[in-house]
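Study this pair:
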Amino acid sequence: MARTQRSIEERISEKEIQYEQIMEKAKQYQAQMKRLKQQQKAEERKKRTHLLCQIGGTVEKVLDRPLVEEDVMRLLNFLNQQERNGKYFTRAMEKCPDTGSEMEGTEND
């Protein structure tokens, strides 16, 4: 049984084809990773938007009226003042070291 040996040119050509196939597969993986990262960012944006809406709703509930644009600056100034006066806001928002839960006297809605 005589076995014919492929020429170097044939082997090079075969390796080039394999290389092209691998590169195409790598491009597909990169595109899949890009899509997954975009989905992850969109999910994070949705969660953040939801949280911000909850915060706004909570402020409206406490004020017992809808928020207006001017309220944002007033709230910011108030919170900054609380921080300057003793970091009251930061301390109120910290978790209890013993339980890891919210501080006593706060509600979970």
Observations:
- The longest helix spans residues 8-63.
- DSSP finds three helices and no strands in the chain.
- Helices lie at 8-63, 69-84, 88-93.
